[in-house]
Specification:
Layout lengths: L11 E5 L4 H6 L1 H10 L4 E6 L15 E4 L10 H12 L4 E4 L4 H9 L4 E5 L10 E3 L3 H4 L3 H11 L15 H13 L8 E5 L12 H15 L2 E4 L6 H10 L5 E2 L6 H9 L3 E5 L2 H8 L4 E5 L4 H4 L6 E5 L17 H4 L3 H12 L1
Parallel strand pairs: 1-2, 1-4, 2-3, 4-5, 5-6, 7-8, 7-10, 8-9, 10-11, 11-12
Helix pairs in contact: 2-6, 7-10, 8-9, 8-14
């Protein structure tokens, strides 16, 4: 049985974040649980630069440290520099939401006396509270995956709702961006997110996104915003060129917080399994999430306002970044299928 965390004298807590936007949003109920269990402690989150914006304005976090693995915290000396910086902060407890060996090793090098995490990746020796990863957890939603880790260490959870806080100035910036394109926030705005990281397998076909947008524009005179990150500009251009009426291609043109504020302006968001899918879920935006090779039970959007569309391919979920066969899990999802769900939500 895992020993429980003793709350006495826990004044400084380090939480090691996961490394991707969607995963980071999924951990916010666990971060809230840490705050509620240690209300008097100072909580610091250690996150990679591209993930850090997820935690801006989060009331459960006191400090945000950037893990700059590409520069000052790179291999060798950089890792020692980071562990030295952590040691100076005199953390009493490390909650390792990231499962990598490195996360536990850095916490050990930093001299943090209490180190909690799942006993994966051969890191048990560096954990003082090694949580056994049970098979049932692999089939659960990842929100519960992280909450269960804390529960096994003796911490109570405080709900499953996601936390993502926008400030008024961020909303104002979103309105300015829309105004540049002569779009009012009162217009029926529909966002689409045709990209996804880790390969093409998670992507519904671009030509079907374009055909769907054409139907939506005709049905409700929707203003279409195409979302996407750096490297997805070509995908956005391909789709926007195939849409009959003008649309706004934002791929690679917005920072993450700007994209969040623009998603909040959407009446409907249509997306592949991605980080922005979890943004929409956290902001309670009506959305359609198109799933193929990934597991909608484990990583689906956690919000009743989110609707999953998938086709029951016998090979899904395969979790492969590129489809080795015919991509049937996505090809069998038709434009009419997604449009029917959109019509219901828009009505």
């Amino acid at each position: 049985m895992t020993k429980k965390i003793k709350s006495d004298n826990i004044k400084q807590i380090l939480i090691r974040s996961t490394n991707w936007v969607g995963d980071a949003i999924i951990t916010t109920p666990a971060i809230r649980a840490v705050r509620k269990n240690f209300s008097a402690a100072e909580i610091t989150v250690l996150a990679k630069p591209w993930v850090a914006p997820v935690f801006h304005n989060n009331p459960d976090i006191d400090h945000l440290m950037i893990y700059d693995a590409a520069a000052r915290h790179g291999k060798g000396v950089g890792k020692l520099r980071l562990s030295k910086n952590l040691r100076k902060r005199r953390f009493d407890l490390a909650i390792l939401l990231q499962n990598a060996f490195e996360a536990a090793f850095l916490a050990f090098l930093a001299g943090i006396p209490n180190r909690v995490g799942y006993n994966t990746d051969g890191r048990r020796i560096f954990l003082t509270h090694a949580i056994a990863l049970k098979p049932a957890l692999e089939a659960a939603h990842q929100i519960d995956y992280y909450l269960k880790m804390l529960a096994d260490a003796g911490l109570k959870n405080h709900g499953r709702q996601l936390t993502l806080i926008l400030k008024d100035e961020e909303r104002s910036q979103a309105e300015k961006i829309l105004k540049q394109y002569k779009i009012s926030s009162h217009d029926p705005i529909i966002g689409i997110n045709p990209g996804a990281k880790f390969g093409t397998a998670k992507r519904w076909l671009p030509e079907r996104y374009a055909a769907l947008c054409n139907k939506l524009q005709k049905a409700c005179r929707a203003q279409i915003l195409i979302f996407g990150g750096p490297g997805e500009e070509g995908l956005g251009n391909q789709i926007s060129a195939s849409i009959e009426k003008p649309c706004i291609n934002l791929c690679g043109r917005t920072r993450l917080r700007e994209a969040m504020a623009l998603i909040e302006k959407c009446r409907l968001f249509i997306t592949n399994d991605s980080g922005l899918m979890h943004v929409a879920a956290a902001l309670d935006i009506a959305q359609i999430a198109i799933f193929g090779p990934t597991d909608h039970i484990a990583t689906g959007p956690s919000n009743p306002n989110s609707h999953i569309v998938k086709w029951p391919a016998e090979c899904s979920p395969c979790l492969k970044p590129e489809c080795p066969t015919d991509h049937r899990c996505m090809r069998e999802i038709t434009v009419d299928t997604v449009f029917a769900v959109a019509e219901k939500l828009l009505s």
